[in-house]
Amino acid sequence: MKTYGTEPGAPTPVQIGISELAVSDGDDTLKSFGLGSCIAIALYDPDSGIGGLAHAMLPDGDAVSNSDRKPGKYADTAIRALLRRMVERGASYTAVEAKLAGGSDMFEFDSFGDGVGQRNAAAARAELEKLGVPVVGEDVGGQHGRTVEFTPGTGELVVKTADEDEHGVTVL
Amino acid sequence: MRLDVNVLGTFYRMAREGAGLAAGRLTQMTGVETRVGVTKLNFMRGQEIRRDLADGSALVGVRVELTGAIDGHSMVVFDRDDAARIVEGLLSEAGADPAADADAFDRMSQSAVSEVGQVMNSGFVDGWADVLESVIDVSTPTFVEGESAEPFLDDLENAPADDDLALLFQSRIETVDAEIEFDHYLFPERDSMAALLDRLRTSDGIAYDKLDGFDRMAERGAEEMAETATKLTGIETTIEIRRLNFVSLEAIPQQVPDEKLVGVAFEFDGVPSGYLLFLFDEASAHEIVDAMVPMDVDDDGFDEMGRSAIMELGNIMASGFLDGWANVLDTTIDHSTPEFIHDIGTAAVDPVVVGLGANQEYAFVFDTLVVADGHAFDCEVYAIPDGSDLERALNDLEVGRIEETPTTAEFQDLDQS
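Above: the input entities. Below: the structure tokens describing the complete assembly.
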């Protein structure tokens, strides 16, 4: 699919839509708008300044047959895809750290079962633990939306909300 | 002629792929950085297409005849001003001086616009051919321009009649400092379309004619909803835009502004089941609260009274909307109690996308804009049914009875649980 970044000179900051992921380095910024129950997973290697951001909507890609077609859709497959691409670009696997944001439960609908947002956050933590990647910061859960902006070079993940009085701006 | 979700998914990928190639070629040609924004498949009646083409703004189009995997016509249409902006860049690179000779500049810009249109058109068609893994031959382009529908459609033998549903591919291509919107119409020959649908279909699907039911559902739902909103608030509301889009789930939040909005969300249950969202900008929400709760003085946020007023309105509108659907489908559709939200617009849609994401990749989005003359009352309504339920509902629908269906809406008391 020819979307962001595949044509020469795509504009920055790069927007990471739902089910998308991207790897970059240095001062480039990767941005995801209006996360509700989706989870933003930011991985980075502090030594090389290589990092990436994924915007996953569901927890478990291993449970479905076609997750290889869209690895960014699921928390587990997105994490592995990010790591692989970062290492290919020169990141050192053992140095990689993770930050998480999102995973809210905005609505209490019967069809949602209990906590789609929570399930996304839990799946991301579980996959990271399995891969030995430490979670060094997170702003997850609650009932509000978040917009995140990630700079791989510094590892800084800025989390903004609609109600700054109540939730403020969090810098992870 | 029958179609199913796989067919529509393939069409969607064609639109996406085509827009990607078109954007890439535009970059090569102009040196301007581009990327693909929202892509939608849209079902429109011939009369709506004519109305859109005649909305008063100057439009330019490039039309080609297609043969091969699809027989028919393909036409890229864009705003003349958008085209002019791209062309300005091209001509200044070529060293043309607009002040020197206005006529010559016009001639050059016409040919440059035409060239841009042709580059886009062939990008789209090449993208389609890639997805279909078949050859599509393209005739030499015809340049059309005007402020009415006639120059675009009148000499086309397979242009849709007023009541025919046609498929429209809508894509947005974004440059660093501008958004250029393209409408891409495909007017296929019926036999060719039928053969293509047969080839792409992986299930029994639904008869193409049943799509008519969609349109009636959307129409009735919207009418009932506007009527109930007017009764409750005393504000005369009308339906400004009504669209039926077929999009990938991921594209749904891209349609919603990422500013802070006030909304009411529901899930509904029946055949079909799904989600219904009402989103107001803050100014509209405040005006509605003022109209419904004259004593309320909280100007900044939404206190308990304000919230319950908005939820009550949402509840009434949801009942009206779903009653309209249920009447057309001859069924009952129940909805949940309202959930209030005051947050980033995209974050309100995201949970719905997540909710549907486990079982489907694409969704039909019934997108309606309710407005009021002389009042801030802008309400975006998104009804997103579960895909398989909707297919079932449409299959059960007898097209003949749609016209006879009376419309009635029952007011329900708001369940304050």
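Note for the figure: Residues 43 and 239 of chain B are 18 Å apart (CA to CA).
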